[in-house]
Structures are given as C-alpha cells and as structure tokens.
C-alpha cells in the first residue's frame, strides 16, 4: 500500500469525519430522523450512529428534538429525532444569503411589501417551467411525486408521501431550502411558492411547516380531490417555535 504521509490516527480521524458527514447529509436529505432511521440509511449500528450524533451535537451541527406528532398523540414518551441546526445547514448551503436579503430589503424600501411579493411570484414563474413540464407529464396520481423530483433536482431534497392517519391526501416535504434564511426575513418567498404549488397541482394546498419558521422540514399538505381539510399538528413545547413569525 502506498504511504501518503499521514499517521494512522490521521486516517482514522479522516474516516470519522467522512462518516459524520454522511450522517449529517442523511438528515439534510430526509429531515429530522431517529437513530434507527439513520442506522438503516447509512449502514451503521445504532450505537455507532449515537456516537457520531453526540459529536455532531457537541459541534453544534445537529440538535435533538421530540418528534412532531400528526393527529392524536398516543401514550408513552415521544420519540427523539435529530435535526440540523442553522449552523449545520450553513455547512451545506452555498447561497448568497446576505446579498439576496439586501436586494429584497431594497425592493421593500423602494416599493413596499407588495413589490417583494411581486418579485417572489415572478421568481417562481421563471423557475416553474421545469416543474410544470414534470408535473404535466405525470399521471394525475403521481403529480406530487413528480413535483418532488423536480424540486430535488433544484436542491430542495424533496419527497412525497401519503399523509399520516385518516387524512385523504399527500405530504410534499422539502428537507432543504437554499433560501431558508432569506425567507425567514421575507415570508413572501414561501407564500409565492405555496401559491405556485397550488396552481401547478390544480388544488388548494396548505403549508403545515417551514424551515424558515424553524421547523425541521417544509411540509405542504396536498389533498386528494374532494378532501380539502389538512391534518392537525401537535408538538411538544421543546419543539415549538414560539416567538417566531411564520413564513
């Protein structure tokens, strides 16, 4: 074996960092995750995952939360999930947040909030042609899934799944948002995106959670035809985002 000049402990440290990055990336791609979920996805034992999570928590990259519960909460202790912190997201995010925020602030000062909303709608219209093509090419029952695929291609790490419990609909989940920090200051970005999804899918959709609001994932409820009521969400005080303005 060719020697590259590194001591064995340096190789070990490099391997540890690489595995830790895989754990963090899995949380980015799939949203807040349990130890068991992560172990299955990255091919490690739960004990090994816990060790890497302890290091990521210590570094401020990951934080533990109580799992968000949809519908009626069952008895017993809520499951613990691990989510990326803002610091953890910054490690993956190469967007020019400050420049974008400054530009939107200038638009707001020059033309008011409606000018920002107009910009947000125009941005979605410009981005939306690829999304529209993907959705229109899909069978009606696969359109939310097709939209998730198009969003993933744009860096949103999106998935589509059936809504939990008795709800007649689907959840479109975006586990990453390149503009989350800007949307925290300018919720018009989230509002324009929601309006666009509704137009694209031909039904009234409802945002249940957003990364900009401090949630672990952007979740949009997409009802099936004739079922417009979104699921109720309950979550513990430790997972709440009291004091923040929703995006």
Topology overview:
Layout: H1 8-30, H2 35-42, H3 46-58, E1 62-66, E2 69-70, E3 80-84, H4 86-92, H5 97-111, H6 113-136, H7 143-153, E4 158-162, E5 169-174, H8 180-185, H9 188-201, E6 206-209, E7 218-223, E8 233-234
**Structural class by SSE content:** alpha+beta
- C-alpha geometry: globular
Secondary-structure element series: HHHEEEHHHHEEHHEEE
Could you tell me how far the N terminus lies from the C terminus, measured between alpha carbons in angstroms? 54 Å
| Quaternary structure of the protein | single chain
Mean pLDDT: 80
Number of strands: 8
Q: Approximately how much helix is present in the residues?
A: 40-55%
Query: β content, as a range?
Result: 5-15%
Q: In angstroms, what is the radius of gyration?
A: 20 Å
Give a short account of the largest sheet.
4 strands, antiparallel
Count helical runs.
Answer: 9
Order the strands across the largest sheet as they lie in space: 4-5-7-6
Extract low-pLDDT stretches. Answer: 1-12, 231-247
């Amino acid at each position: 074996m060719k020697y590259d000049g590194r001591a064995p402990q340096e190789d070990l440290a490099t391997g540890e960092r690489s595995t830790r990055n895989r754990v963090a990336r899995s949380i980015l791609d799939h949203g807040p995750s349990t130890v068991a979920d992560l172990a299955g996805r990255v091919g490690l034992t739960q004990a090994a995952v816990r060790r890497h999570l302890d290091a990521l928590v210590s570094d401020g990259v990951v934080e533990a939360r109580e799992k968000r519960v949809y519908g009626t909460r069952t008895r017993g202790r809520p499951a613990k999930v691990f989510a990326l912190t803002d610091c953890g997201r910054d490690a993956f995010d190469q967007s020019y947040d400050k420049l974008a925020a400054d530009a939107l602030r200038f638009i707001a000062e020059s033309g008011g909030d409606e000018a920002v909303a107009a910009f947000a709608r125009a941005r979605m219209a410009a981005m939306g042609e690829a999304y529209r093509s993907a959705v229109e090419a899909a069978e009606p029952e696969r359109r939310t899934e097709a939209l998730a695929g198009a969003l993933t291609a744009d860096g949103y790490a999106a998935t589509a799944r059936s809504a939990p419990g008795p709800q007649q609909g689907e959840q479109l989940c975006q586990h990453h948002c390149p503009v989350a920090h800007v949307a925290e200051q300018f919720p018009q970005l989230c509002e324009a995106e929601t309006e666009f999804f509704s137009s694209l899918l031909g039904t009234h959709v409802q945002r249940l959670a957003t990364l900009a609001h401090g949630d672990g994932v952007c979740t949009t409820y997409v009802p099936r035809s004739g079922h417009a009521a979104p699921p109720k969400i309950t979550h513990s005080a430790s997972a709440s985002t009291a004091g923040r303005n929703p995006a």
